[in-house]
Model the fold of this input.
Amino acid sequence: MTLKRIAAAFAAAIVGFSATANAQPADFVDLGNIGAAGNFVFDTTGSTNITNGGNLDTEIGLFDSTGILLDNDDDGLGFPFSVIDIDLTPGEYFIAISEFDSIFADGFSVTGTQFEAGESGEAVLNINGLLAASLVIGDAATTGLLEVAFFRFEIGDADVIPLPAAFPLFLAGLAGLRIAGRKKKTA
Done:
C-alpha cells in the first residue's frame, strides 16, 4: 500500500468518525441519573394539545450520547401516545418528543411536518409509569417555541446508588446535632 493510499484511508476514517460524533442538542431538560442499568419504559401519556384542548399526537425517539438513534415510536400505546421499552446500559442518553409525522435519524435529527401554524402542546415524559418531566413545545415559526422536547438523562452502574440532592444537608444536620449534644454534656 502506498503512502498516498494510507493517507486517503486515514482521511476517510477521520471523516467517518466526525460524522458519527454529533453535537448534543443545545436545549434540553436535564433529568440527571434516573437509575441503574436495566429495563426502562418511556412514554408520553398525558401529553396535551394546548391549541385545541385534545391530546397531543406524539412521537418519541431515543438517542445515545453520540446521537445514534436507538429506537423510536409512534402510537405504541395506541393513538395518540408513544412508548419505548428498552434495556439500557450505563451511559448518557437523550429522549426526543415531538408531534406526529416526525422523522427521527442519527445526529439528534428530528424533522418532518410536526406542528401546524400557531399550534403548541405540552410534551409529557413518563419513566416507568411515573411523571419525569414536561415541556411546552410548538410551531417554532409562529409561537417561538421549540418544536422538539429533548430530555437528557444518565443510567448508572448497578453497584452505584445515586444519592438524593438533599443528602449533604442531611449530613450537615447530623453533624450539627452531634456538636449540639457535645456542648450539652460539657455545660
Observations:
- The helical segments are 3-20, 140-143, 167-186.
- Residues 3-20 have pLDDT under 50 and may be disordered.
- The longest strand covers residues 91-99.
- DSSP finds three helices and twelve strands in the chain.
